[in-house]
Amino acid sequence: MNALGWLRSAGRRRPAGSAGSRRNVLPIWPALGIVVAVGWIAVTIDGGSFLTSSNLTNVLQRSVALGIVAVGQTVAILAGSLDLSVAYLISLSSLVAAETMDGRESMLVPAIAVTLALGAGVGLVNGLVITKLRVNAFIATLGTALILKGYLADNYSRPAGEVTERWESFGYTRMGPVPVSVFLFAGVALVVGFLLRRTRWGYHVYAVGGDEQVSALSGLRTHRVVIGAHVLCSVTAALTGLFLASRLGSGTPRVGTDGGYDLESIAAVVLGGTALVGGKGRVNGTVAAVLVLAVLDNVFNQLEVDPFLKQALRGVVIIAAVALYARRRLAARDEATAAPPVDAAGPVGPGTGAAGTPEVATA
Amino acid sequence: MPGAPLLEMRGITKAFLGSVVLSEVDLTCAAGEVHAVVGENGAGKSTLMKVLAGAYPPDAGEVLIDGEPRSFHHPVQAQAAGVAIIYQEFNLLPERTVAENVFVGREPARFGVVDRRRMEADTARLLDELGERSFSPRSRVGDLSVAQQQVVEVVKARSLDARILVMDEPTASLADEEASALLDLVRRLRDAGMAVLYISHRMPEVFAVADRVTVLKDGRRVATLAVADTTPPQLVAKMVGRELDGYVPPRAAPAELGEVRLRVRGGGNQALDGIDLEVRAGEIVGIGGLQGAGRTELARAIFGADPFTRGTVEVDGRVVRPRSPRDGIAAGLGFLTEDRKEEGLALAQSVKDNALLGLRSQGRRRTDTGSRTATVERLAEATELRARSLDQEVRYLSGGNQQKVVLAKWLALDPGVLLFDEPTRGIDVGAKAAIHELMRDLARSGKAIVMISSELPELIGMSDRIVVLREGRIAGELPGGATEHEVIALAAGSDPVGDGPAPGDGPEADG
Amino acid sequence: TDDSDDSGDDGGDEATGGEEAPDIQGGTESEFFDQAEMDAQLAMRDIEPEGPADKPWEQAIEPEYVDTSQYATPGPWKICFSNASVDNPWRQVGFKTMQAEVELHPEIADFVVLDAEAEDDKQISDLESLAGEGCNAIIVSPNTTATLTPAVEAACETGVPVIVFDRGVNTDCPVTFIKPIGGYAFGADAAEFLVEELDEGDKVLALRILPGVDVLETRFAGAQTIFEEAGIDLVGAEFTEGDPATTKSIVTDYIQREGGLDGIWMDAGATALAAIEAFEDEGLDVPPITGEDQQDFLQKWQEDGLTAVAPTYPTYQWRTPVIAAVKILSGEQVPAEWNLPQPKITEDTLEDYIQPDMPPLHYALCGCEDMPGFPERWQE
Amino acid sequence: MSTTTVDVPEAGAEAGEVVPVPSAGRRVWAALGRTAPVFAVLAVLLVWISIENPNFTDPPVFLSFLKRAAPLAVLAAGQYLVIVAGEFDLSVGSLVTVTVVVAAEVLADHPDGTVRAMATVLALGAVVGLANGLITTRLRVPSFITTLGMLLILEGAVDYWTDGAPKGALSEDFRALGRGGIDDVPWLEQLPWSVVVLAAVAVAAVLLMRSDFGKRLIAVGDNDRAAALSGVSVARTRTIAFVLSGLAAALAGILLGGFAGVSAQVGDGLEFEAITAVVLGGVVLGGGRGSVVAAVAGALTLEALFTLLNLLGLAAALQDAVEGLIIIAAVAFAAFRLRPDR
Ligand SMILES: Nc1ncnc2c1ncn2[C@@H]1O[C@H](COP(=O)(O)OP(=O)(O)OP(=O)(O)O)[C@@H](O)[C@H]1O
Ligand SMILES: Nc1ncnc2c1ncn2[C@@H]1O[C@H](COP(=O)(O)OP(=O)(O)OP(=O)(O)O)[C@@H](O)[C@H]1O
Ligand SMILES: [Mg+2]
Ligand SMILES: [Mg+2]
Q1: How are the residues of chain C apportioned to helix, strand and coil, as percentages rounded to the nearest 5?
Q2: For C265, what's the count of Cα atoms within 13 Å in the CB-facing half-sphere?
Q3: What angle do CA B318, D232, B341 make, to 5 degrees?
């Protein structure tokens, strides 16, 4: 057998670094640092104040809503899927939560339970449609989104319900300078991160996202995994809805779409270095990406950048950032010499446009 | 011959929409036996194995393990019953580590939390058992070579403590040295009491490792023989239904050699260095070397896929600088890649569209479809392509026939210099002979041919000259008909010690 | 970008619970409907407002003044504005008018604007950060009435005078709340006109921008009751999301389905032209139609001599908050609830509001004609 | 390659010698086999509509339906090219809005510069498409992100430029294409220009897909590495697809602007409608399969659905819900019904 070992050592070995560099520190973290630094300079020059605790608090506060749902979106995308229905689900959740509470402390816990259950339910439906009906995720969740949209429009014409005192205070109180709700965000990120990187379920999410057929042949119940991923994703959306309800004191039928949480969350995930094709990426990248977006938003605010211009700039940032990823990957690949087939498709290579829809229905 | 059959397949019949792919196939395999399955492309070997592994339900017939009838509706059930299969196409997750791949779906865990340490320890143990030290349980599978991935597959099977192991053309993508190492591995597994079903197109391997061999033809079992009682020619005869005479076509006589059509001077890039190469019209130059020696890179560099950054390439005396396959084709080069599924075919497109893709990429030349269809039909004949129609999607063709479509694509372009990378990988002996004839004819018609092959008999038999690569440089050159020993010596940089007898020594080794 | 005329509403109807008005096909149940509030608004239309007649943005209907001496501070002032959004022409025109108004007051040294981009959560944060900005006065145009209430209350608690306009909040902690008469009046003005023009049983189609915008809901609620009483056949109420193509398709479909329509009611003028074209393209005469004070509609009305009316939700109300801020910081009293007049454009007054050289989506009642930078500022 | 051969049944590939290419008839049949569901759904919807509204069948009314469907159909054709090449174009909706607004601005300065306006917006569409293409292929940004970013950029930029309120108006000449038609056509009364445009675009698309470029395009979507090694310039091919999609969007903008006039909302959500239409047509996200005819049919189906829901007088709010259900149902149905032909 040593023959095999001996012979192969004669063959060129690819630098181990290429593997390492791909797994360790995600470039989004340095990026966050840079954004903060540049933002700080810009704002200070402009005569504003950036690194004040009140402002940083504001940044954190603003990142909670997108952050929570983006973490969930990360799971869906890692599993090789994606979820376009979160925005409407967030709206619905905020309403269900506020209406169930209806100002009665006694109903706080039930309301939270009901809302999360609602999320789980919607996630279940998404997952079932995608796996059992073999509708690709893009269309399936787009369909769900339309259904929720219709339901909202038909049943709610304005803010409804009223959260309890305690729940409202949750959205506003702080521990020291840090808003309590930030701990919710952190908590969700930690838990989901743990689930993904430590538990069997997480391993299976990566496996299924990486290659569904291989996973199936290896005995994974791929459908369950995908469904689970969607349930988790929708539950985070419900959580976001709950959180927003606590901020708004009631539920509103447009809070989700006004926030653009569907596309924004996907953008954040990709910004965080997760491959749209699935199977590759990490929660902490998403967290960093959300913070980057929040800081940018805050800086633009302070510089009183025209809101429209702001939106355009956001678009530029997203594209540029992801382009840099691609650069980096190509670099990693070159350094690894002409890569063997498996690598060459490259997670962000052309064709990943079809991301989120790996096992296409007719396949 | 060991005792009671551990595995028995009775009257297995399978049809895809009416077309019978397997009919009444019987097959038994005992613990501690290596049972080879051979047959032409499309004979049904892979399908039979997929039935065994539960990937396809059989239309009729039954599978017995330890005499117990079992029916598998999902590969997992087969796994549970101790049947592990290594498919023709790899079943690994490139983005995950070796350990994660080995234990995917069966990760050791406490309360759902994966015990990574244990997982990696177990993997390491299994790797040691196989004497594999060139990579660790933490290596990312995507970074491993073909051979290394092969080992990962075996480790995976071991970890399932499978009693029945199916290997579908495991050596198809390995250089002979690695292949022989793998055969050692198979023997060990056998000695460990496994029942191994071994599919291969390579006769020497079959005779080197198998106890018994079953021949399939057009979905029927033609024979099951003890290897001791048969010879390669007999087997081949059974597979193709006719005697194959002198297998490799005669080499080119010096007189047949013409002008230099391809000349590389001091070619180099980040994978290659100091490449000097000349190929004349009518000549077939073989490129030998170990996995990772840079043979494919050489072809890709000449073709312009991963261009040379140093040195010059001349085609027919003209200096060309192909920066892309486009340029390469324009310069009169053709490149038949080693990996047909990933690099050769658009699987969802028709035979015709695949065969014409090269022409079409060249824009507005020769556009009237009539003659194009004719071209495709001609080439289909020439390559003995077997498809239901030219409009059939190529993904439904068996491995060998897919390769023929790729071949047709390049012949359609009729380039002056052809680069063949593993031209007969995974192709049955009948088709193989045809392709060899074809290559020789092409040479005679004045083309210059570069042929990369990991199969020494083919390399030696087909080449007029053999250039051996080692770590991206030319290690040396040998005349056609050099011995395998010489080639290995050059490729490995010294006389390989302790290397088991290179499989299939002897002239008519492959047929 | 959503409702193209996403404008005011009054806190009042929020405070008092409303009884249900009968639901009609196509309409969403009018949970907004509040008879008392409606009656109040309808009444206000006939009350002569106090203040300079030539400056309706300084006028007030039945004002109850509050003393503001405790807020009196010497200039220069820093005035902060938390805007819901500028994502539609109405708010664009309004915001420009407001900026022009600010320039009229040299004692306003600093005018800080935070735009919430139609996000409640963002506007809440904006208000939180404004609280720390050291503003002398905070002007708020809430994105949503109910949800901004807590944040506005928080702002009030900082002791800085808070001025709310356009949409209201469910608290009277702001020093003043500025708004035109309101949605019911708007809806009623339009509906009454159609009732005038049509007979019992005539078919009217209601075109709405989208559900869930409180003011638009009150407009429809107002119209609904009036149609009810008059026995008008409201054949449908459809949401156009402010998209002319959708509007045109819907109207065409209804014309085909109902074999013609006798009137069109709109909760906002943005898509009036598309509705009119639907009739033109079907080769039919345009029935009585209601719109709003956008130039394109007014000009079309004049050119084709349509039978039409244009209730308004005047953009001049964007001037008032700045004026109010100046008064408050000077210690002058202001109305607690500042109800601005809400004129409607009719056949006879049409002429006065046509401004040929203004952009098609310019609102005639910007009250900005005599302001610095007119007309360029509102044109480019 | 996400396509799995397992459980895809198939008639014997071993039929011996190569049988000659099947007759045109058989090819058509095969094509139908691939795309029948959408045509079936469309037929059902049209029949249903004409039951609800008997005069739907007389030419003028039906034509006005086609006229209304034309913009989406054109968009779908463009989107198809991108999708079949394995990409996405989410920017088309905002591009439509930009087209209309820009055209209005141009015409504001040059009241009778119809040609100029059209040229400008078409050029604009091509440029945006080019940008999408280059960013996706050269910078290797997944097209989902590229075009999502482009969507934000376009919307932001146009609003920034016009302060959120489009100025100027579209001249009658300019609007003729989307609103007017060829008058006094026997039996049809008026043949709307947009229907002519739609027909032209459809024919052009079919021819394009039969051309070498079309074959390259679909091969690229199927396996870009194989295509590249066969000499296809993948980046260029995909970029062209994006450019064509951009042009289609601009054209759709011209039609929509013509149909209904200026507005900053006109393009909202069209990107999703276009993608939905293409997928309804049985085209596979991920590339390599599906026919452009079916994609266009998908657009008509969607538009027919909207019309029907309107006719049924379904509570406006519920229409979205129904649409969502139908889309899922149709695609799910296709997932089972569709069997790739050999
Ligand atoms: N999923 C499928 N659908 C339809 N036909 C199939 C399918 N899989 C295999 N076939 C057909 O069944 C026959 C046997 O294929 P199989 O792959 O078993 O051949 P093989 O002996 O493995 O050939 P090779 O040596 O080239 O791998 C071939 O004609 C092939 O076209
Ligand atoms: N031992 C190895 N470790 C990592 N990567 C390898 C190894 N061997 C080969 N590779 C990579 O796999 C690809 C194929 O290897 P290469 O083309 O150099 O080998 P080859 O001589 O063509 O052998 P074969 O044709 O059998 O693959 C190359 O990109 C090379 O970088
Ligand atoms: Mg096989
Ligand atoms: Mg090679």
Answers
A1: 40, 15, 40
A2: 34
A3: 110
- Gap from CA of D24 to ligand 2 centroid (Å): 46
- Residue B75's pLDDT is 80
D31, pLDDT greater than 60: no
Q: Where are the alpha helices (DSSP H) in chain C?
A: 11-15, 35-44, 89-103, 120-131, 145-157, 183-197, 214-230, 244-258, 272-281, 295-304, 320-329, 350-353, 376-379
Q: Summarize the confidence of residues C163-171 as an average pLDDT.
A: 91
Q: Residue A276 in 3-state DSSP?
A: coil
- The ipTM estimated for the assembled molecules is 0.82
Q: Is D86 left (phi over 0), alpha (psi -120 to 50) or beta?
A: left
CA dist B132 and B473 (Å) reads 26
Any CB–CB contact under 8 A between B388 and chain D? Answer: yes
* pLDDT tens by residue, B4-20: 689 999 999 998 877 78
Instruction: Please name the amino acid found at residue A118.
Output: L
| Tokens read off for B82 | 């101790």
Is D187 an interface residue toward A (CB < 8 Å)?
Answer: no
A181-190, B396-405, C241-250, C352-361: range with lowest mean pLDDT: B396-405
Q: What pLDDT score does D274 carry?
A: 93
Question: Which chain C residues are Cβ-neighbours of D260 within 8 angstroms?
Answer: 243-245, 247-248, 274, 277
Q: pLDDT for A135-175, tens place per residue?
A: 889 889 999 999 999 999 888 877 889 999 999 888 888 88
β-strands C233-239, C203-208 pairing: parallel
Q: Is the dihedral of CA D244, D245, D246, D252 positive or negative?
A: positive
3-state secondary structure of B131: coil
Calculated CA dihedral for residues C48, C54, C56, C61, nearest 10 degrees: -20
Compute the mean pLDDT over every residue in chain D, rounded to the nearest whole number. 84
pTM score, whole prediction: 0.84
Query: Atom 15 in ligand 2: which residue has the minimum CA distance?
Result: B292
Q: Cα separations (Å) of D282 from A96, A162, B13, D74, D88? A: 37, 45, 34, 17, 16
Greatest CA separation found in chain D? 70
Residue tagged 């000659």 (tokens): D20
Starting from the CA of residue B297, give the closest ligand.
Answer: 2
Burial per residue of D43-77, b for 16 or more beta-carbon CB atoms within 10 angstroms, e otherwise? eebbebbbebbeebeeebbbbbbbbbbbbbbbbbb
Q: Among partner residues A55, A58, A252, which is closest to C147 by beta-carbon distance?
A: A252
> Which atom from ligand 1 is nearest to the alpha carbon of B17?
4
pLDDT for D25: 56
B285: helix, coil or strand?
A: strand
Is any ligand 1 atom within 6 A of the Cβ of residue B397?
A: yes
Nearest CA among D93, D100, D89 for reference residue D131: D89
| Alpha carbons D297 and D69: distance in angstroms, whole number | 10
**ω into C375 cis (within 30 of 0):** yes
DSSP one-letter code for C152: H
Atom of ligand 2 nearest to the CA of A339: 29
Residue C19: count other Cβ atoms within 10 Å of its Cβ.
Answer: 9
CA–CA distances in Å: residue D78 to residues A62, B41, D69, D206, D242: 38, 41, 15, 12, 8
Pocket probe for ligand 1: among D7, D14, D18, the residue whose CB has the most ligand atoms within 8 Å is: D14
D292-311 helix and D193-210 helix, angle to the nearest 10 degrees: 150
- For residue B175 and ligand 2, the question of a CB distance below 6 A is answered with yes
Residue B427 has a pLDDT of 76
A55 to C28: CB separation less than 8 angstroms, yes or no = no
- Report the run of H or E that residue C111 belongs to, with start and end: strand C108-115
pLDDT at B43 over 90: no
| CB contact (8 A) between residue D166 and residue C361 | yes
Check: CB of residue C340 under 8 Å from CB of residue C370.
Answer: no
- Cross-chain Cβ contact D140/A330 below 8 Å: yes
